[in-house]
Amino acid sequence: MRRSVGASFSEISPSEFFYRNRDLAGFTNPTRALYFSLKELVENSLDSCEASQTPPEILVSIEVDEDGPSEDPRFYRIMVQDNGTGIPAGDLADAFGRVFYGSKFKLRQSRGIFGMGATMTLLYAQATTGKPAFVASSTTGRRYHGLLMKVDIERNRPVILRRLEGRARGWRGTLVSATILGDYQKAESKVISYLEQTAMAAPYASITFRDPRGRQVVLERVVDSVPRPPRETLPHPSGVDVETLRKMVKAWRGGGLADFMVRNFQRVGPKTAEAFLAYAKFDPRTDPRTLTEADLSRLASALRSYGGFLPPDASYLSTLGPELLEAGVRRLLQPEFCAVESRRPQAYEGHPFVVEAAVAYGGPRLKPGLTVFRFANRIPLLYDESSDVTWKVLNSMDLRSYRVGPEDPVGVVVHLVSTKIPYKTIGKEYIADRPEVEREIRLALRSLFRALRNYLSRKEHMVGVARRANIYSKYMPLIARFSAELAGRARLPRYEALIPRAELAGEGGGEDGAGERAQDP
What we know:
The chain is α+β, with helices and mostly antiparallel strands. The chain has helices spanning about 15-20, 30-50, 90-95, 115-130, 185-200, 240-250, 255-265, 270-280, 295-305, 320-335, 390-395, 435-485, 500-505, 515-520; strands at about 55-65, 75-80, 135-140, 145-150, 155-165, 175-180, 205-210, 215-220, 335-340, 345-350, 350-360, 370-375, 380, 410-420.
């Protein structure tokens, strides 16, 4: 008689899950791991500074750790320091030693969405080099608190090896240092591109980077104003599902359904709540806690189908705005032409979003051909470019109709701002082609390429004007001499003053607005 063997079930912690599946978070190999580690730490620093509207001062360094191999892939020590708000001493260990622990789990625009980036860096360091990380923070500028720590992977909690404390000497902010297995030789171009594009999306930040060879790159801020930080908001009723409703009802301690609607959803007033409940056939006085599973399912379905709700409120978002976006583009690309556009707020699945875009042309930094810069909540997206919705839009556009040839140096910048970015993967590297988002990107790029077409038309026209002016100036002396001979005069007419006027038509051909200036008397 055969003996049946039952399945064995067990549970693992979030830390152990991502330790086993770190590819999901982008830590695929030493090259990408080096890039993602730096990326996650820098984004945490920028979020911290922007929360208090402090112009960021970010220090980044990558140094070789001699304990490891002598060639790439080898051990590298990554350090990121900021001047943000700092982390209270009581939260410092958990902030870096627990997966899914942080300040990102609110309905608010944020660079991070999972609260696990810094912890993943520590987990990867622990798995590849076995070395503890060092974190330090000061919230007052008087004293700092530091921890030498690891992560208890099985229990998803920090393991503190040593505590340090001392005088901060005026420094307020956070410092993180971790030693990981990386390949800087292959990751260098991505690291530099990431920092430069971060400076484009945050022209109010100053970033200093020191590479493993001791070379230093300083990206100075070009503006001093920091955008208003995003605010936490309530969910929009059209984007709520049954599980979200169940959580809301469980936490509810108020009155009936009408009051529940007003206090739990954005842009829902008493009249809108009554109109919706009449549409959904619910009594406004019903206690939400008495609703059955069938009632919750019917309520969620009605929330999604009701067309009387106001659109989501986008005032809770923090956009760059045309001025900051143009300042960032001009700092990095130094183009001869730049046009920017910020679209009106829209929504998908109840989440407000704004598309900001720019098109740049010419200048010393743009290479021949089309170069695309993608951002989401001010995060540069460098990997998996071909899968992004922006390229889908560009591939569907006939750029020749905008007088743009395949070798013309054109830069396209697309920035998506939302309380929920529709990423396709947990690595946050490309945006899904949601119809609403795709439409806004398409409209923005069409408008910007029309502006570029007008500029190129003016530029081409002025080249012709300048060519004719040069010919005119070349033959002016001959015409003057011939005219004097016909008139029987010994002295030539004073024609010199006419030549600068003719040549003026050809000046400034490479600047935006040259056509208008060339027509001045």
